[in-house]
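Thanks for the sequence, V.! I ran Lipoprotein right away. Repeating your input here for the record:
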Amino acid sequence: MIARNTSSVLVMLSMGLFAGSVLTACEVADPLPSCTPGVDCGYSFKCNNNGNKYYTFDGDVNVVEHSPPHFDVCAIIDPSVPGWEDEVKDECTARCYFLDNMAINDFNFHEICEDSNWSSVEVYETDSGEDIQCTADTDSTDWGPVWDVLGGVAQAYAETLPCDLGNNCMDYLTEQARRGFTHSGMPSIESTADVQGTIPPVTSPGPLSSVTLAGETKTVTGAAAWSTTSCGYNACPFYLAQFDLTPASSMEVSISYLSTTLRKTISSANVSLERATMGLWLPSTGDVIFPPGSLYLRLTGTVSGLSNAFGENGNYDFVYPITNFVFGTLDSGELKISHSDQDLLGGWSLTTRFN
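Predicted structure:
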């Protein structure tokens, strides 16, 4: 997916090459950077699991035990207060209880959700090592960019969202979607959403899904999975479980760096959603909005061609957070994303549709 005023997925891949990007590592955040409690102290955390478990139904009959390797939470903490890791563990323990289906007989299937069973707490980081903040408090979100792109009515609607996307908006999700939202990378995560869509073939009616980079356009294939919710307001949570995009063939681009023009081939490129997430949708207009910090993309690819002293050729696999708003539309069951911009490599554009 693409954010306004940031790189396309392939531009982002190319931008990472000069920095020697590698797979993002999750490291213990000690200490976190300063922030303003109640304003911008929401961070994305991983609690590594060592014994906690909960139970859900598989369909309406079979009971399934879940003891995933980690839980993801969006926690509001004050990093200046010692022991903030304990606060994050409390959030993960609460999430464990929340995911347990209380209709299951606890005598035979008793959940275990204890702070002591979190072996460690990590903060998610960008590829450059910056701690990733998240939408833990929707009331503090600046919805001004929504006005700029969609108009004042859309902004007013967005401000009616009745919950925080990082936490209690899960109240509106199904049991499966709650699991997908909490456990990044779980197998078949697309099945936790109500709708599984793919990019239509190039022979189908309607606009082609494609990416244009430095003057070269390639069609793309891919898939997405999502759920809308009914919350009774003009803006409701929108669950995105999957997003995958792959160019149909390699892309040849020219990169101007200092006084040199490098001709590069980007092959085996792919962008996917690193973690299931939530945005919001406006039922009356069909607009879909992802606030800053909602989307984490995993970018992979191989770069070859004329090299320079930085040695940027090679295989790449890294996580990139989208720090601006992302916009789309949902119309008659079809999810569309379309955008164009100007960046390091010149003009680029992206058009995708899933149905």
